[in-house]
Design a protein that fits this description.
The chain is of the alpha/beta class. The protein has helices spanning about 45-50, 70-80, 125, 140-150, 165-170, 180-190, 205-210, 210-220, 225-235, 240-245, 270-285, and strands at about 15-20, 25-30, 35, 60, 110-115, 130-135, 200. It is about 35% helix and about 15% strand. The structure holds adenosine-3'-5'-diphosphate. Adenosine-3'-5'-diphosphate (A3P) binds near residues 70 and 145.
């Protein structure tokens, strides 16, 4: 079933206004138990599940605000071997955002995008063992980035203050649920599907040494690129360059915001930081991933 508007949503799908700790509400869509952005005419989880996967599709998965636009562009240029200055972004193949027919005719290999969990993706992602790239970012910077994003996008209808945002965010009350649940779920997917080719990238590593991380991507994709080319990709994917090229699509100032590591220190109060660190220890105790909160 393709949803055409919020008014035609199925019984399993309804709008939710979740209050933050100050009573300001953030709007999302409950799509069969999972909170999604309230976007008109979006395919929804059912639409995503039915997408036809090609053997050579590459699946790009990340929690929102983990640097998807940036790493997608890097990957696209490494894959094609071209320095591209167009305004195409990951939204072109954002599966829960655009209908399949819009990207069904794209030339192979396609890079598909989603912020969803593996269980929401088409079964053929696992069956065909297509290449999967996951991008992770430290959750404190994700939270700050998400707050600034959600305050500016009309679909969230959110006017709340930062001090009231953090707790419900990490309790999974806003769209896409909890960052911790997302990360743990993907770690579980990797563990239970050891033959699924998955490349895990960290935003902070990319900031620290983009050349090294791009070589990892090339190896994973099975492409050879010269250092000269890699250096040109670096120049073409700086925040400033991407702001220039991608801003033509629409106003994307909240997507290309600061682009750093450690901005959370300008936002987290001591009390918020202590609360978060405690929660992180509890929830992520069994997770071996090491996140860098500063560089
Ligand atoms: P900040 O809000 O912390 O600045 P996503 O693409 O997943 O929505 O993530 C958006 C975050 O990635 C934003 O973080 C944004 O500034 C950052 N970002 C976007 N393009 C970038 C680039 N070329 N280099 C570094 N960071 C970038």
């Amino acid at each position: 079933m393709l949803y055409t508007s919020a008014a035609s949503l199925s019984l399993q799908t309804h709008l939710v206004d979740t209050p933050d700790d100050g009573g300001d509400t953030l709007t999302s869509v409950n799509d069969n138990g999972f909170l999604m952005p309230n976007l008109p005419d979006a395919p929804g989880i059912q639409g995503v599940r039915s997408v036809k996967i090609r053997d050579d599709d590459i699946m790009f998965c990340a929690f929102p605000k983990s640097g998807t636009h940036w790493v997608f562009e890097i990957t696209r240029e490494l894959l094609t071997g071209e320095i591209i200055e167009d305004d195409v972004t990951m939204t072109q193949t954002f599966m829960e955002y655009v209908h399949e027919e819009k990207y069904a005719d794209l030339q192979s290999p396609r890079i598909l995008n989603s912020h969803l969990l593996m269980k929401h993706l088409p079964e053929d992602v696992l069956n065909k063992k297509i290449k999967v790239i996951t991008v992770l970012r430290n959750p404190k910077d994700v939270a700050v980035s998400f707050y600034n994003f959600l305050k500016t996008v009309p679909f969230a209808k959110y006017k709340g203050e930062w001090k009231n945002f953090l707790r419900p965010l990490f309790q999974g009350k806003f769209l896409y649920g909890s960052w911790m649940d997302y990360v743990i779920d993907w770690e579980q997917v990797k563990k239970t599907n050891p033959d699924l080719p998955v490349l895990t990238l960290f935003y902070e590593d990319m900031k620290q040494d983009q050349m090294r991380e791009m070589r990892r991507i090339c190896e994973f994709l099975g492409v050879e690129r010269t250092d000269d080319f890699l250096s040109k990709v670096c120049d073409n994917t700086t925040l400033a360059a991407m702001r220039t090229h991608k801003n033509r699509e629409n106003n994307r100032s909240s997507v290309f915001r600061k682009g750093g590591v450690g901005d959370w220190k300008n936002w987290f109060t001591v009390a918020q930081n202590e609360w978060f660190d405690q929660l992180y220890q509890e929830k992520m105790a069994g997770c071996h991933l090491q996140f860098k909160f500063t560089l």
